[in-house]
Design a protein that fits this description.
heterodimer; A: 293 residues; alpha+beta; Uridine Diphospho-n-acetylenolpyruvylglucosamine Reductase, domain 2; Uridine Diphospho-n-acetylenolpyruvylglucosamine Reductase, domain 3; Enolase-like, domain 1; 3 domains; five-stranded antiparallel β-sheet; B: 169 residues; 6 helices; 5 strands; 33% helix; elongated; binds flavin-adenine dinucleotide; binds FE2/S2 (inorganic) cluster
Chain lengths: 293, 169
């Protein structure tokens, strides 16, 4: 037999309101989405809970909607669906790349967008992309709905701005006006592994291919997604070429303060972060030049 | 803690059982339904020996609760044995040395099967990506990839039939 979690009660809800109600009633309760992070924690009994509230039955949360101003992805939309979504690969290559690089096809068939974000594992790949995309997090709680940006949503390792009885229902990605391009890259020890470091970048270019604005975000290295303002301000008004990328590489290498840990030395982290930033910027720029996005 | 009734369409047949909510789909299939082609390898969501199809998509049954499969369709290797595509895959796994000890094989077969159902003519990169959630300690993967390569294209060319409930995906 497989390792069995400690005992818990189980409730499958069919509405967000019922989910919030159930979570409010039982203190030690948790939302169950795809279970790909939660079930392993329960199996090792690192975590025990009294009530699991399964939101898998709320059909409306498994959604993908394109509107004029934004793309809205329901919390229960599968990472595997995101990977296969043509609109995503065409218009938001960074999001496609991040989805396609998460774990393996088996995990992606269960894992959800909402779960990947709410779990807020520093090694998760969607948090840095959503931060780079300047996404809005739509949250439902007791009788109210609120919308937060990434800086409020991600508070630390495995820690978000969600209260215990709140449910993340969707993320909204503003539609990039005009000439926008993006890329995501990660470094992991082996295929399917969590990122040691990842980078998501979204560039807005003018007609002459100068960088109007950008959001470049480092994942995994710090407890929360790290928006690299020094990189983005250095890019502003410029064309991306080898010389500029060299400067950027130095900015990242000298600009982040990291410590060695079990997974990698500080030196390697600085190296890999600066390498990924320059590569991701080059890739995004190349896409724009090729008119791909 | 209350037990819950779980009703799964398992290999085409209704299978109902009252279980503790903490029951893994892996144990539901092996211990309650006596279907032992689904293996437990790592028990830590890493090896894919426990792969089954949930509503037509491969998942790790050691990381799914049986209650999550309630009212849904689960296929194990036993339930795919009569599929012409699966028969061909098995033949080629033997032919191309796609297995040695056989422990990973049910998972490998299911992942390869679902790749070929989705895409009849995948390239090598796509084949390797499709089995990237399945670990094999024996073969070095080469034989497995070769086996899938020899079957690929046949679905399109010979129009291997598939059972109706597997079409919806
Ligand atoms: C072998 C393996 C490799 C992996 N590799 C990667 C990787 O490379 N990159 C990566 O990004 N991830 C990786 N993961 C994690 C995977 O992507 C998970 O699916 C994801 O972290 C959680 O999503 P879930 O839907 O499975 O959520 P669950 O496991 O069900 O939930 C995770 C947490 O979020 C909470 N939660 C879930 N949904 C909501 C919601 N809508 N509102 C409020 N709270 C909610 C739950 O209560 C729980 O605390 C890996 C997992 C495994 C098993
Ligand atoms: S036993 Fe399920 S992934 Fe290894
Ligand atoms: S054949 Fe032995 S693990 Fe794959």
């Amino acid at each position: 037999m497989g390792s069995t979690p400690g005992k818990f009660d189980y409730l499958k809800v069919s509405s967000i309101r019922d989910a919030v109600k159930a979570l409010s009633e039982v203190e030690n309760s948790k939302v169950l989405a795809g279970g790909q992070s939660l079930i392993p924690l329960l199996k090792t009994r690192i975590m025990t809970i009294d009530l699991l509230v399964d939101i898998g039955g709320i059909a409306a949360l498994d959604s993908f909607r394109e509107d004029n101003g934004f793309i809205e992805i329901g919390a229960s939309y599968k990472v595997g669906s995101l990977e296969e979504n043509r609109s995503v690969s065409k218009y938001i290559p960074a999001l496609h790349e991040a989805a396609a690089g998460i774990a393996d096809p088996l995990v992606r068939n269960m894992g959800t967008v909402g779960g990947n974000l709410s779990h807020a594992d520093p090694g998760n790949d969607l948090p840095p992309v959503m931060t780079a995309l300047d996404a809005e997090f739509v949250i439902s709680g007791n009788g109210n709905q609120r919308v937060e940006k990434s800086d409020k949503f991600f508070q630390g390792a495995f820690s978000t701005g969600l209260s215990h009885n709140e449910v993340l229902t969707a993320v909204r990605i503003p539609r990039n006006g005009g000439n926008a391009t993006s890329a995501f890259m990660k470094q992991a020890k082996s295929s399917g592994d969590f990122s040691l470091a990842s980078v998501a970048t979204v560039l807005h270019l003018d007609d002459d291919m100068n960088c109007l604005s950008s959001r470049t975000v480092l994942g995994s290295i710090f407890p929360r997604p790290y928006l690299m303002k020094s990189v983005d301000s250095h890019l502003q008004g410029k064309k991306i070429n080898t010389g500029l990328l060299k400067e950027i590489n130095n900015i990242v290498k000298n600009g982040i303060s990291v410590e060695s840990d079990f997974f990698a030395s500080a030196e390697y982290k600085r190296y890999i972060a600066s390498y990924l930033v320059t590569e991701a910027l080059a890739l995004a720029y190349k896409r724009a030049e090729a008119g791909l996005t | 803690m209350k037990n819950v009734k779980v009703n799964i369409k398992l290999n085409g047949r209704k299978f109902e059982r009252e279980v503790e909510p903490r029951t893994l789909l892996l144990d539901f299939v092996r211990e309650f339904a006596d279907l032992t082609a689904t293996h437990m390898g790592c028990d830590t969501s890493n090896c894919g020996a426990c792969t089954v199809l949930l509503d037509g998509k491969p998942v790790k049954s050691c990381t799914v609760l049986a209650v999550q499969a309630d009212d849904r369709e689960v296929r194990t290797l036993e339930g795919l044995g009569e599929e012409p595509l699966m028969k061909r895959l098995k033949e080629e796994f033997i032919e191309k040395h796609g297995l040695q000890c056989g422990f990973c094989t049910s998972g490998m077969l299911i992942s390869s099967y679902s790749l070929l159902r989705k895409k009849s003519d995948p390239n090598e990169k796509e084949i390797r990506e499709a089995i990237s959630g399945n670990i094999c300690r024996c073969t070095g993967y080469h034989g497995i990839v070769e086996a899938v390569k020899s079957v690929k294209g046949e679905t399109a060319r010979e129009k291997l039939p598939e059972s109706p409930e597997l079409v919806r995906r």
